[in-house]
Design goal:
InterPro entries: Beta-barrel_TonB_sf, TonB-dep_rcpt-like
Subcellular location: Cell outer membrane
Membrane topology: Multi-pass membrane protein
Radius of gyration: 26 Å
Mean pLDDT: 89
Helix content: 10-25%
CATH class: Mainly Beta
Keywords: Cell outer membrane, Membrane, Signal, Transmembrane, Transmembrane beta strand, Transport
Number of strands: 36
Distance between the termini: 53 Å
CATH superfamily: TonB-dependent receptor, beta-barrel domain
GO cellular component, one term: cell outer membrane
Low-confidence stretches: none
Structural class: mainly beta
Number of helices: 7
Length: about 625
């Protein structure tokens, strides 16, 4: 009897196991669908700003990246290499990694670029992402509806909603070298109208040194970050503190090997944003920024810094300065909505100033007491308006105008006009987006201080861009993007005067293909390839692409990434093409613990970067290290 019942018991057992497994899979599928539908990026994206590339919360989680630099090395149509100071920075294909003014970084409503150089990466290249919900990258040259000067790219980091999280999390990360990272995140919903988000991070990034004929150069970086956001009814208060200590890497040293040096940078900001009227169509934003920077470099072989009193026959052997910067800014925006029109009007004002706290320049013949000519302050006022006009369902025309008046210390004010038009439409499976714009990039304080006669006109940029996206079926999508730039009076370095000047007209074209495949709710593939008209005799790769694979299986998350950069021939170098492979895996343990492993540039196929310095020796070095991380986190 018992023998006859055993097969039946086994069948019944398998039946219940199958039901349980199917039930778990159904629950997981429902959860995935909810995650997808409730993604915050659906609410924050602003299509009129430009061609949009989104990194969702789920993608950030599967990728197991904890810093901005880990993300930006694999985005379409740009290179992200360390510059001569070891700072990771974006650059156009073909251009050297430098100190560029074309990029803006926002954390929620606040723009955090350097007041002095108008580049965000001096402090924010390794910015922690534990408190970031999702990231929107706008290819946005000429964008009107932005509360700051126009830029070629706008990166928006949106922080997590405390009412959604309502938890605390601790993460500890260690790499196989001396690098480490620790992060505390607290998100609490106090009541239905009140919540706060707090993040504290301390990290150290240990990079391989580079051996040069005159010695060894380093680019290690130490970071401390504190972030706090408080939401109360229709008000948001946000403040943050970021401190970065770096080795100078090649610095300004003529032989590219400083004897000693450091770069200490500090950024503190606070802002308040308020929404008024019943529909929250009136927005008011007030902010204050305080930044400090100390640069120290010593080199007996000589230091080149293009000060107004620089003498090439008697170069500096020591350069030490300490500066403080302040920025006060405010904007007011009002939206008007009708059946056909969505109109945004805005007023923006900004006042920036700097003070040199310490200044020491020493040559072999002694200290110099002559002071640098520096820009004491900068004022900017803007009026802007944009209309999104609905031609019919899912088809809109976009038009905008921006009037800017800006004035640097001791100079006459300048008035410039930005114009932009576009169309956005969805036709069954096909969607299109196209923009044409005429806009300007104004020089930074740093550029003006190092310009010939301390004069630079803004760069006049005309852009025509288009994007075509086709939904092949429910699982496959392919998109094509093309951008055509013409820049007049672009900033270039004059080797005769050893100063920045306005150069001749410059054309630049870039094309990108992006394919996405989602076979189910738990797996996705993303392939990208981009190319330009820059050729291969450039200072960075002019072609590139990537493959990204996202996978989930119950408690396991797996990510694969392969980044391609084409060969190129800067100066007298001949760099081959490269394939940089990264891999991460995360396993969720019981009791809300998780452990993750991540390897970067595992096979050592990193692209090469180059320092193309106007005075001194060129240097080549690997853009990325081979690194392995282990992270443990706990949610409370």
């Amino acid at each position: 009897m018992l023998k006859n019942k055993i097969p039946k018991l086994i069948y019944i057992l398998f039946f219940f196991i199958a039901l349980k497994t199917q039930g778990e899979e159904n629950i997981l599928s429902l959860m995935k669908k909810y995650e997808k539908e409730s993604d915050l990026s659906k609410k924050t994206k602003k299509e009129s700003l430009g061609h949009l590339y989104i990194i969702t919360r789920k993608q950030l989680e599967i990728m197991q990246i904890h810093t901005l630099s880990q993300l930006l090395k694999a985005i379409p149509m740009f290179n992200f290499f360390p510059n001569r100071f070891g700072i990771y920075t974006l650059s156009n294909p073909g251009e050297v990694a430098g100190i560029d003014i074309k990029y803006r970084l926002y954390i929620d409503d606040h723009e955090v670029s350097s007041i002095h150089i108008l580049n965000p990466f001096l402090i924010y290249d390794h910015y922690p992402l534990d408190h970031i919900n999702h990231i929107e990258i706008y290819y946005s040259m000429g964008a009107i509806a932005v509360s700051n000067e126009p830029a070629q790219m706008i990166i928006k980091l949106y922080t997590k909603k405390p009412e959604r999280e309502n938890s605390s999390k601790i993460r500890l990360t260690k790499d196989l070298r001396n690098g480490y990272g620790g992060n505390i995140l607290i998100a609490k919903k106090i009541n239905s109208n009140e919540s706060f988000l707090f993040m504290m991070n301390k990290s150290f990034f240990d990079y391989s040194s580079v051996d040069e004929p005159d010695g060894r150069i380093y680019r290690d970086t130490a970071l401390q970050s504190i972030f706090f956001k408080y939401d109360y009814y229709n008000y948001t208060f946000e403040t943050a503190y970021n401190s970065v200590h770096r080795d100078p890497f090649t610095g300004f040293s003529i032989d590219a090997v400083p004897d000693d040096g450091k770069i200490d940078s500090l950024d503190f900001y606070l802002y308040i944003t308020a929404y008024y009227l019943s529909d929250k169509s009136l927005k008011v934003h007030l902010s204050y920024d305080n930044q400090k920077r100390e640069y120290f470099e010593k080199n007996k072989e000589g230091i080149f810094y293009p000060l107004t009193f620089f003498d090439p026959s008697n170069p500096f052997i020591l350069f030490n300065e300490k500066r403080t910067f302040e920025k006060h800014s405010a904007y007011v925006e009002k939206k008007f909505q009708s059946s056909k029109n969505e109109i945004l009007t805005g007023f923006f004002v900004k006042y920036s100033k700097q003070k040199i706290e310490k200044e020491l320049h020493r040559t072999s013949s002694g200290d110099l007491t002559e002071k640098e000519k520096y820009i004491k302050d900068f004022k900017n006022i803007s009026l802007y308006a944009e209309d999104i006009y609905s031609l019919r369902e899912n088809v809109s025309l976009i038009g905008g105008v921006r009037l800017d008046r800006y004035k640097y210390y001791s100079m006459k004010h300048k008035d410039i006009v930005h114009l932009r038009g576009g169309i956005s439409g969805i036709f069954d499976r096909l969607s299109i987006k196209s923009f044409i714009s005429s806009s300007y990039l104004i020089p930074s304080m740093y550029l003006l201080e190092n310009a010939k006669d301390n004069r630079l006109d803004p760069i006049h940029v005309k852009v025509l861009s288009g994007e075509l996206s086709y939904q092949i079926n429910s699982k496959n999508n392919i998109s094509f993007t093309a951008q055509f730039f013409t820049a007049k009076k672009h900033f270039s370095f004059d080797k005769n005067s050893l100063r920045f000047v306005n150069g001749a007209e410059k054309d630049f074209h870039v094309f990108s293909v992006l394919y996405r495949f989602e076979p189910d709710l738990f797996n996705s593939v993303e392939l990208n390839y981009w190319f330009t008209n820059q050729g291969d005799t450039t200072l960075s790769p002019s072609n590139g692409g990537y493959i990204k694979l996202f996978s989930e299986f119950k408690r396991l998350q797996v990510y694969n990434e392969l980044v391609y950069r084409a060969s190129y021939r800067p100066l007298f170098y001949d760099f081959p093409s490269s394939l940089s492979y990264s891999f991460s895996v995360k396993y969720r343990l019981p009791e809300d613990f998780s452990i993750s492993l991540r390897g970067e540039n595992i096979f050592g196929g990193t692209p090469k970067a180059v320092r193309a310095f106007p005075v001194g020796y060129p240097v080549s070095y690997s853009a990325y290290d081979r690194k392995y991380y282990i992270s443990i986190s706990k949610i409370f």
